[in-house]
Amino acid sequence: MTKTILITGATDGIGLLTAKTLAAEGHEVLLHGR
Questions:
Q1: Number of folded domains in the chain?
Q2: For residues 21 and 34, what is the distance between their CA atoms, to the nearest angstrom?
Q3: Which SUPFAM superfamilies does the entry mention (predicted)?
């Protein structure tokens, strides 16, 4: 089951890594940065 996930601080560091990992798992990822 895929989920829609909002990640804040997704421009670098742990936010970026988390976004890439979740997207690779097939989830819909919404990114927010500065």
A1: 1
A2: 21
A3: NAD(P)-binding Rossmann-fold domains
| CB neighbours of residue 11 within 10 Å | 12
Helix (H, G, I), strand (E, B) or coil at 17: helix
Does residue 2 contact residue 30 with C-beta atoms inside 8 Å? no
26 dihedral zone (left: phi>0; alpha: psi -120 to 50; beta)? left
pTM of the predicted model over 0.85: no
Contact between residue 16 and residue 29 where contact means Cβ atoms under 8 Å apart: no
> Which segments of the chain have a pLDDT < 70?
none
Q: What domain range is 27 assigned to? A: 1-34
